[in-house]
Amino acid sequence: MRRKLLLGNWKMNKTVTEAKEFASAAAPLLELAKAHHVDIGIAPSFVALEAARKILPPDFIVSAQNVNEHDHGAYTGEVSIPMLKDIGIDWAIIGHSERREYNAETSLACNAKIKALLSAGMTPVYCLGESLATFEKGETKSFVAHQLEEGLRDLTPDEAKKVVIAYEPIWAIGTGKSATKDIAEDVIGFIRRSLRERFGAVAEDIRILYGGSVKPNNVREYMECPNVDGALVGGASLTLDSYEELLRGMI
Ligand code: PGA
Q1: How many whole angstroms separate alpha carbon 240 and alpha carbon 32?
Q2: Percentage, residues of the chain above pLDDT 90
Q3: Residues involved in catalysis
Q4: How far apart are CA 177 and CA 172, in angstroms?
Q5: How many domains does the chain have?
Q6: Mean of pLDDT over the chain
Q7: Section 21-31 average pLDDT
Q8: Cα 132 to Cα 78: distance, rounded to the nearest angstrom
Q9: Are 181 and 221 in contact (CB under 8 A)?
Q10: Fewer CB within a 10 Å sphere, N or C end of the chain?
Q11: CA 168 from chain center: how many Å?
């Protein structure tokens, strides 16, 4: 049985002070989540990770939004895996479409990060998804299959099992125009079949999230889809009320 997962991607929002306020108020939600077998987490900016980690109970996931694949060295502005581990962070979002767009991250670059995270015993959340143009051309599945192949290249089934995938159509991110639940289930079902072809039975254990304008009023629809294991949520994860409503919509 795959556990459901709600992960809030805060992007470049919230100061450390604001993150602390949210974390203190959100901590009690873990009990509700646990009672319904849902994992919950947030992905604050790098500077707020340590403060959030210290406030939140250990089972409340605190994830980075990116990481560099090198342990140390001359990479100005980057943050390494040992730096994250040192402050108790063991999850990282990889390949978010905004990083692909603004930081020219490729799926092969994501592959290097995913491998580095897995060797360090950390959990990567690998994001993929197509642009509006690709969607309108009807090429979503071939596009996503390519991102999946490159991002998870050379992984063993045991490693693949530890990755969380997030399907986020770019045209649905921050636009208020979410993919219908049928689209989400169709593409995520396709992703699971591709994972099964490559990695075998472990595909049934790999969590695949939907992301893109998930809101308290539509989260339940996605959760009803057999292949959708949770949500990666941007805007609607920023206030505690909305975050709690998202959780309630998943239980
Ligand atoms: P959104 O962002 O929920 O604001 O659309 C989702 C994401 O980018 O992860």
Answers
A1: 14
A2: 98
A3: 96, 168
A4: 5
A5: 1
A6: 97
A7: 98
A8: 30
A9: yes
A10: N
A11: 9
Is the Cβ atom of 232 under 6 angstroms away from ligand 1? Answer: yes
pLDDT tens by residue, 182-204: 999 999 999 999 999 999 999 99
Q: Does residue 1 register a pLDDT over 90?
A: no
Query: What are 239's two structure tokens?
Result: 């206030």
Q: Separation of 8 CA from ligand 1 center, angstroms? A: 9
Q: Which pLDDT tens digit goes with each residue over 151-167?
A: 999 999 999 999 999 99
> From atom 7 of ligand 1, which residue's Cα is the shortest distance away?
234
Separation of 7 CA from ligand 1 center, angstroms? 10
Is the minimum distance from the CB of 127 to ligand 1 under 6 angstroms?
no
Alpha helices, DSSP H only, in the chain?
16-26, 29-35, 46-55, 81-86, 97-102, 107-119, 132-136, 140-151, 157-160, 181-199, 219-223, 240-250
CB atoms within 10 A of CB 20: 17
Is the shortest distance between the CB of 218 and ligand 1 below 6 Å?
Answer: no
For residue 49, the enclosing domain spans: 4-250
With the most atoms of ligand 1 within 8 angstroms of its CB, the residue from 131, 173, 245 to mutate is 173
